[in-house]
Amino acid sequence: MSRTRRVTFVCIVLFFMGGCTPVQRYRPAPLAPAQTASSLAARSLNDPGLRRFVEQNLGHELNPWPPQGWDLPMLTLAAFYFSPELDTARTRVVAAEAAIVTAGARPNPTFTLTPGVPSPYLLGFDFQVPIETAGKRGYRLEEARNLSEAAKLDLAETAWKVRSGVRAALLDDFTAVRNLALFRSEQETRSQQVRLLAQRLQVGDIARPELEASRFALLNTQVAMHAAEGRLAETRAALAAAMGIPVSGIQSVQLSWSDFEEPPSEQSLSPKLVQAEAVLNRLDVRRALAEYAAAEGALQLEIAKQYPDFQIGPGYQLEERNSFFTVGLAVTLPIRDRNQGRGSTKRSCRPLPVESSPSHRPERSGAGPLSSGIERTGRSQRVADQTSGRARADDHARRPNRRI
Predict the structure, then answer these.
(1) 106 CA to centre of own chain
(2) What is the CATH code of the structural domain delimited by 53-387?
(3) E strands, 271-352, in order
(4) How is residue 28 annotated by DSSP?
(5) SS3 86
(6) Sequence ranges of the domains in the chain
(7) Is 336 helix (H, G, I), strand (E, B) or coil?
(8) What is the pTM of this model?
(9) Cβ distance 256 to 316 under 8 Å?
């Protein structure tokens, strides 16, 4: 082999070696159940990482930390920080974004070296570049991007479910606290009533059955108060579970129910606007649309695979002292398998359109329950206003008697 050919061969080999990107190494990540359990048990709202997360989302520093009262927005941010469901959804988003990079990758070229045996003067190599036809790479990218969008919408839906769980648990806790306060007030009132009736019984003003009836009512109130205390403990445990922290991490926390003190008025809940948002801007509907678009891309990809790809590239052959340069073309002939089975499978597995899906019919889309919910809210507000008005009227009517 001449000097020029040797230099050419070495340059080609160095070129391909230099084009190789660094490979990634496997990094083991073993699971440690004991360590995970201890970290879960140590979670609390005093976590400095939680403080950085809350300040980053609020856009300002919080002094002092932890805050004196935890309302719904603060508890929601804490749940976003600790929730394992959100961690899983974030992982799915990262995997979907990585799938976009994988789908957009072009096939690597191949380099074939065929040395001659037994003669050392026989040498050949071929360099072939795969070329995809029928827009297969575009369909892969479309499917991966739609799946990534679906994963992001699933993350948003999971975040909304976490917030809904925290709100429901906080509302139950608010109700339990108010009920417990009412039962305690009733216990004091009935205890005072029992004492007064006992004094009247001593002077012979009443009969003993009246006193016993009052004591029985006091006993029922005490039982209801203990049940309310147990209900309060249950609601605190449910709130801790919704936030992803142990019960010990929320026992010494001062909760704030300012969002429930003044519910929205009936005028602020426009039925048409709420129904339009519920039907057109639902996260599950948007996720279903993204998944449908991804299924469309997958079907188009399987149909495009019926058209074969080919490889083209130059070649070099050295025989004795003669050099031969060639141009090769390799095509997979679609004779036996034309991808009919996988294309039919993708077509049959394609999800139903959103408007024809059973889960998104009008009776199940939330429009009906939403309308009835808004109507019940309005009736409840009107009943509450009427009750308050009657209470004020009765109190005003009793004031002259009190003065007399």
Answers:
(1) 32
(2) 1.20.1600.10
(3) 310-319, 322-331
(4) -
(5) helix
(6) 53-387
(7) coil
(8) 0.75
(9) no
